[in-house]
């Protein structure tokens, strides 16, 4: 790619390969956790009646806060495990931005270090504002 | 109906959604919402939560391959993500104050727009003289084709950025990736070759969706029992779709899909107007 730093150290192409690998491993890890939790959920409750999703009730704190999800997954609660997989899935794009920031810093592309920091800040603000840690 | 039956039907439906979504380039989210609300009569808020997860899974899965091939413009994606993430957070906040019927009607409009976008003429020519803003932001790039590496430049950065903000707001509000709007911003407005636009749009969708997903997770829109078959089904369907893409004529598929989507859009809007959500 068109980088002036091709000869010394990291280039755009390296960042691209790293980002690609991160995205793939994130999705695979997340789906494995979700699959394990899901099968467990079906083994436990598969034969009970389907809850009514027609009326919106919302999930309780065990599945909506980071601590709640971690602790219910730790106690091998099936829904908690599924929710943990979902947290990994949501975290993958955020990690991708963090990794790009690192790459742009190594490339000494300060303009893109700033741009990436802005995006990361928005994501983290939404995460902290969203998850009641 | 038992949970097992519901899960298996939803898994099959989500697989189909991922398959069709990846073949037409509309992603899984657009198909998941009507599937859950119109077929299973699930509250639209649970459907939005599930659709966001489907968008992230679909985007991250497909983007890993496109990034490797070097088609995606990661600088352009990163720059425009400022607009889409801010928009997505705003959209997710607005969703609390928006009645579900309005969301359904708005979603129907977006479906119609997306259908029209898939039929439109695509921009295939690489621009040779771009704007100064594009050069300053290092947004110009190149991508591999069968004829060799093609260099392209772009213009109308400000207009593209504005459309991206709207795409972000709608994505946060409706739980979809807003791929059609993202492509419109890059392909028609910024004059980027279509293949670069679609892959960069796909790359960005995961980030936009993740920006609002946390807000929805905290509000309890994400039910593990719905999310689990949806995520796995859409992902499986998307992988199959990526393989099938080489064998199927996408033109025929696009016409069939457009007809189907117009029908679904009409039904969503009708139900929205009749206050059935």
Automatic annotation (TrEMBL), chain A:
It comes from the Bacteria. This is DUF1634 domain-containing protein. Pfam families: DUF1634. InterPro entries: DUF1634. Keywords: Membrane, Transmembrane, Transmembrane helix. The chain crosses the membrane at residues 22-43, 81-104, 110-131. It comes from Mucilaginibacter celer.
TrEMBL record, chain B:
The chain crosses the membrane at residues 46-67, 79-97, 103-119, 161-181, 201-218, 225-246, 252-270. This is Probable membrane transporter protein. Its main location: membrane. It is found in: Cell membrane. Keywords: Cell membrane, Membrane, Transmembrane, Transmembrane helix, Transport. InterPro entries: TM_pro_TauE-like, TSUP. One of its GO terms (cellular component) is plasma membrane. It is a multi-pass membrane protein. It comes from Mucilaginibacter celer. Belongs to the 4-toluene sulfonate uptake permease (TSUP) (TC 2.A.102) family.
